[in-house]
Amino acid sequence: MIEIALFQPDIAPNAATIIRMAACLGLKVTIVEPAGFAWTDSSFKRAGLDYLDRAVVHRSPSWQAFRAQTRGRRLVLLSTKAALPYCQFGFTGTDILLMGQESAGVPPEVHEAVEARILIPMKPGERSLNVSLACAMVTGEALRQTAGFPVP
User: Do residues 3 and 27 lie in contact, with contact meaning Cβ atoms separated by under 8 Å?
Assistant: First the structure.
């Protein structure tokens, strides 16, 4: 099953929005620590509503620990530095979609360690989309390709 990983997220409402989406779609989310906010942050709770309690969320203490836990799974990084548009990428049902930090993306060692890098094509001159919006777009395409949407 497709999973989502957030690398050291630093905006609480965005992380909570992604967790809420994952709860609705039956997906696991891993937070690669450290996060830039407390789990008790009111904006985190407000954005996540009661979905935070229904989501499958794992907190990994570091990038190294996360990598050790994900051996054998393909990490697919969403990055404005990638060249391959996400709609041209072939997802598998075991991919982990990795979102970078909102303020800084991911460091070079993370960029180099992933198996694939994809981007959302944008109008020239624009920097980036909100991470929760980007995550939703790419997650939707990955689930479409892998027939991974929940069956009602």
Answer: yes
| pLDDT tens digits along 84-119 | 999 999 999 999 999 999 989 999 999 999 999 999
| Strand arrangement, sheet containing 116-119 | 56-60, 28-32, 3-7, 96-99, 75-78, 116-119, 84-85
Relative to beta strand 96-99, strand 75-78 is parallel
pTM of the model: 0.94
Enumerate domains of the chain plus CATH numbers: 3-146 (3.40.1280.10)
pLDDT in tens, 6-37: 999 999 999 999 999 999 999 999 999 999 88
